Amino acid sequence: MPFLKKIIILVISLQLMIFPCMPAHAAVADLVSSPPSNYKPLPGPNYPVDKGAYFTDDFGNILMVVNVLGQVNRPGQTVVRENVDFAELLSIVGDVRENANLKKVIVARHIPDSKVAQVFQIDLKKFYKKGDESDFIALKPNDTIIVPEKSGLTVANIAQVTSILFTGVSYYVFLNNLK
Fold first, then answer.
1. Residue from 28, 3, 5, 6 nearest 15 by CA
2. What CA–CA distance (Å, rounded) separates 54 from 15?
């Protein structure tokens, strides 16, 4: 599958270099056949599914639900393919936020047959810097991925505190000018 993605990207890049005025989505439409216009993909099955179970879509693809929480752009429950990896999952949830702690991403797995939970720590910083996927694990249904916030001083934290201080100072000056 990665080979096919590389070929599609190469073809689109070449097409955009040859026809720069053509929108990118037109190039993609030429390469990928679209489902019928009346088809609406399911966000999940329309039948009851046990927690931690796989299910299929209308095309027979094996799907599962995972939970993504914390410093991502679209947190929540997400329906993904059975063999999704972290790179694909991050693109589905809109990537991580600027204040995400990439070294301490947690995957919490609940094993339905017992009262035991497994916890894995993933270092996504190695992936972002070097493309190193050695910390990646195979995701299972109902896994919860938690992307924590950086602790300490970050640009976002400084900006938040500064905006609160300036708002307070502005109110103080405004109220003193009313007297």
1. 28
2. 38
pTM of this structure: 0.57
User: Counting Cβ atoms within 10 Å, is residue 174 exposed (0-12), middle (13-18) or buried (19+)?
Assistant: exposed
- Give the span between the Cα atoms of 168 and 103, in whole angstroms: 35
Query: What is the C-alpha R_g of the chain?
Result: 22
Phi, psi of 165 (to 5 degrees): -60, -45
Read off the pLDDT of residues 5-60 as tens digits, 9 standing for 90 and up.
Answer: 555 555 555 455 544 444 444 444 444 444 455 545 445 555 555 656 888 877 88
Contact assessment for residue 52 and residue 140, using Cβ atoms and an 8 Å cutoff: yes
List the Cα angle 76/82/88 in 5-degree steps. Answer: 60
